[in-house]
Every structure is written in C-alpha cells, then in structure tokens.
Write a structure and sequence with these properties.
Number of strands: 0
Distance between the termini: 75 Å
Radius of gyration: 20 Å
Order of helices and strands: HHHHHHHHH
CATH topology of the largest domain: Tetracycline Repressor, domain 2
Structural class: mainly alpha
Strand content: under 5%
Largest sheet: none
C-alpha cells in the first residue's frame, strides 16, 4: 500500500508565496534601478528581508528570478490591455487612447514596473517564456490597432507596424512619468499621448 502524499501546511504555503512575492518585488526594484549585472543576490536578499539562500529555494538563480519578473510584469500589463480591449461599447480608436492613459497611470503608480516594461532597446530578455509573454502583450495592442484600422481610423499599412510605433511613443511617455520627469496629469503628457495617436491615425 502506497503512503499518502503529505498535504502542504496551509500556513507554510502562504508564507512561502509571501516570500516569493517579496523576492519578485525586490528584484523588480533593483533590476530596474541598478540593472541586471549591478544587482547581486546579497542585495536582493537584503531588499526582500530574507537570507540569501532563500532565493534558491524559490528560483534557480538570478537569471530565473529576472525572467519571472519580466513574465509577471508582462502579464500585469497584458491585463490592462485585455481590460481595455474587452470594452466593446467604445470605438477601437477611443480604446487605444484610453489604453495610453492607463499605461501612464500605471507608470505613476508603479514606476519600477513601467521601467521594466518600457525598458530601452537592447535590454530584451533572452528566455523564450519571457519573450512569449511580451509578444502576447504586443499582440493585444496590435489587435486594438487592427480593429481601429478596420474602422478606417488607422492609416494603411501593417497593424503590427502601427502598434509598434504607438507603443514606442507611449512607452517613452510612460518612461518619463516613471522617472518623475513628467507629471502624469500634465499638458505635456496629454500632448505626447495625442502625438502617439496622430502618428498612426488615418489622414
């Protein structure tokens, strides 16, 4: 007769998940302020309030922790896109504008997440799962742009191209807000978001 598999203790499970979330938060903040190479595992442990060895009970190493931070941030941003995309009561062009504002608001609330999401070119993740999560996010924006194009609101050309143009400009705005160089509610941000739409709008 096979012995039953022990059921994890609920409190231990909760505590383990809480520790994992603290590590992810610490990693997000340090990776986006010190960079991947500038962030050490002792610094991560100190920021999370755990022993350094605890990192390896939750992640295979710093690279795996970084990859999970990228994936979780991309999922968070994709949730914003999905929420805006699901509101079919508004034209796609209005939803694109609303999405720009939502990204800026998110950058104000969580600058570290915005810095990671809209990181500079050349700092893309190398693992396939992270690239897939970011591709899913980009795909959501592309669907909105394609819908606006089908309504005659976006200029001719591949929706993929115009989605990338729009995201690059909105990402620049979000980056400025995350860096506290621009105020989220400022006229400059409104002007920049309008410029992002104008760059892809049908003439």
């Amino acid at each position: 007769m096979t012995a039953p598999t022990p059921t994890p203790h609920p409190r231990r499970t909760r505590d383990g998940e809480a520790t994992r979330q603290r590590l992810l938060r610490a990693a997000l903040e340090l990776f986006t302020s010190l960079g991947f190479h500038g962030t050490t595992t002792p610094a991560l442990a100190t920021r999370a309030g755990v022993a350094e060895g605890t990192i390896y009970r939750h992640f295979a190493g710093k690279e795996a922790l970084y990859a999970e931070v990228v994936r979780s941030t991309a999922r968070w941003a994709h949730g914003i896109v999905t929420d805006v995309e699901a509101d079919r009561t508004a034209p796609a062009s209005d939803r694109i504008r609303r999405l720009g504002h939502r990204f800026v608001e998110a950058a104000e609330r969580d600058p570290a997440a915005a810095r990671l999401l809209f990181r500079r070119a050349g700092d893309a993740p190398s693992d396939p799962a992270s690239r897939a999560a970011l591709a899913e996010l980009n795909g959501g924006v592309e669907r909105l742009v394609a819908a606006a194009k089908a309504d005659g609101q976006v200029r001719p050309g591949p929706a993929e191209l115009w989605a990338a143009v729009w995201l690059a400009l909105v990402g620049f705005v979000a980056w400025k807000v995350a860096a506290k160089e621009w105020e989220a509610a400022s006229a400059t941000v409104e002007q920049a978001l309008q410029a992002a739409w104008d760059a892809i709008a049908a003439r």
